[in-house]
Specification:
Largest sheet: 12 strands, antiparallel
Number of helices: 15
Shape: elongated
Strand content: 15-25%
Length: 493
């Protein structure tokens, strides 16, 4: 085994020297003038420090962040090479026999040869930059490759030194990106909802008015049986359809706590009434999916009754969309779960239209076929920049799981928008499918995902549909999306 290893190492060394000699024999007149100087400029990272400074001056905020990541990647690669790499292998520098005098450096390096620190630094900076700002990374990649090649061209490194150094640089760039993402996720990670210490305890339900959406079906009725048993003094009001918002507002005006029994759309209307009245909300899950109740940790009416009796409640964030270019311009709407523009609202519109006729499942399939066949991307002005999108999704808090419209949150106390865009171009089917396999915090030509506190959306085409918490509407010509942290008090055991 030892003999085989020695034989392999000997063969690799011979190929390394052969490639080194092949480069030395080649004559590139332009390279004789450029490459030695380029290698000297990269000494001690001066070239890359200058590039980072230029990017910081002329680039965007994202480009400045990318330059900082590139510099951090360079520092990591340089420290790894100069401490572990060179002192572990201790490979001598190549003999300069055959290297033309005009190429040789005036001052030869005194450190060991393996791996190439210049190559590691060059590729680390370019990789760290490219992972955050691909345009800048593409512009500097040829420079990084030229610096790496110059080390063989001037005779100070073997080709394997350069290749290994470049690989270490790329690895350093990815390592820094991983650290940056973890720091961002830690900074923006969902925090536990804050306890609402001022929520009143209603052991018998006195002061509670529960508005029941009679269109929610048998699930709502099952919850009412538990409510009447556990909270006998609670007032229960039945209504549905167009009367629901007015009934919720009236109940909020006369109650200490507003209760609601229904699905996500009904709970959204109740949350709006509770916010405007400044009172707590008690949710009795009674819909088909109950996303908000499940994310809040409510398994059913029994949980809500227990929380009301004990006065246990939390403060949750609420998403808001306001017509006009400024949040003070119009009466806002709210969303507890999600807001979207583009393909999903159109799918929802078709599903709501056909569902009563053919059933929910067939209606969803028919709606998907209609949207994927006929829908066109929407052109919007996002934060002042024109964009073409198949779908804009904003979640109230961070949703986990891949894809443009994931379904699970760990907390409702974060106070951030989980923004996901499926970019326009091509057909919606392939784009949405590609986005479905993208990571939750990814940037690609197809899918962008990020988290922020507010977003201005302008130049919305007239008649563009929007959806929020399963409800369908038409978008104004401009709106502002933002979040209201700790805005709503909700009972939870």
């Amino acid at each position: 085994m030892v003999d085989q290893e020695l034989t392999w190492r000997g063969a690799a060394a011979r190929w390394d020297r052969k490639l080194f000699d092949e480069v030395a024999r080649r004559h590139w007149p332009a390279a004789d003038r450029v490459l030695p100087g380029l290698g000297r400029a990269a000494n001690h990272g001066v070239l890359w420090g200058g590039a980072a400074a230029v990017i910081a001056v002329v680039g965007s905020a994202r480009a400045r962040k990318a330059a900082l990541c590139g510099a951090a990647s360079l520092a990591l690669a340089s420290a790894t090479v100069n401490t572990i790499g060179k002192w572990s292998v201790r490979r001598p520098r190549p003999l300069l026999e055959g290297v033309p005098e005009v190429r040789r450096l005036v001052k030869q390096p005194t450190t060991t040869s393996f791996p190439s620190g210049h190559s590691a630094s060059a590729f680390a900076f370019a990789t760290g930059l490219a992972l955050q700002a691909p345009g800048w990374g593409a512009a500097l990649a040829p420079v990084a490759a030229s610096v790496a090649f110059s080390r063989v061209y001037t005779g100070v490194h073997y080709p394997s030194d350069v290749v290994t150094g470049a690989a270490l640089g790329v690895a350093a760039g990815f390592a820094v990106r991983r650290v940056v993402r973890r720091l961002e996720e830690a900074r923006l990670s969902p925090g536990a909802e804050r306890t609402a210490g001022d929520a009143p305890a209603l052991p018998d339900g006195s002061g509670l008015t529960v508005v029941v959406n009679t269109g929610s079906g048998t699930a709502a009725e099952a919850g009412l049986d538990i409510l009447r048993t556990r909270l006998p003094k609670a007032e229960v009001v039945h209504c549905a359809g167009a009367d629901l918002p007015a009934e919720l507002a009236a109940a909020a005006a006369r109650s200490t706590v507003l209760g609601v029994c229904g699905g996500d759309g009904t709970i959204n209307a109740a949350a709006t009434a509770a916010l405007r009245a400044g009172i707590p909300l008690a949710v009795f899950p009674g819909g088909t999916l109950n996303h908000f109740a499940l994310d809040l940790g409510l398994g059913g009416a029994e949980d809500t009754c227990r929380a009301l009796a004990a006065g246990r409640a939390v403060r949750v964030g609420v998403g808001r969309f306001t017509p006009g270019p400024d949040p003070e311009d119009g009466r806002p709407g709210y969303f507890l779960n999600t807001f979207s523009i583009g393909a999903y609202p159109e799918l929802l519109r078709h599903r709501l239209r056909w569902g009563p006729r053919i059933g929910g499942g067939p209606a969803a399939l028919l709606a998907a076929w209609r949207v994927l066949r006929a829908e066109r991307p929407v052109r919007l002005l996002l934060a002042g920049r024109p964009r073409s999108v198949w779908l804009l999704f904003a979640g109230n808090g961070t949703y986990h799981g891949t894809g443009p419209t994931p379904r699970r949150r760990e907390s409702l106390g974060e106070g951030l928008l989980d923004l996901r865009l499926v970019h326009g171009g091509g057909r919606p089917g392939p784009r949405l499918l590609a986005a479905a396999f993208a990571g939750p915090l990814s940037r690609s030509p197809v899918h962008t995902a990020t988290r922020l506190r507010s977003l201005r959306i302008g130049e919305i085409p007239p008649g563009t549909p929007l959806a929020y918490d399963g409800e369908y509407s038409r978008a104004p010509v401009a709106l502002v999306l933002d979040t209201l942290p700790d805005a709503l008090t909700v009972y939870r055991p």
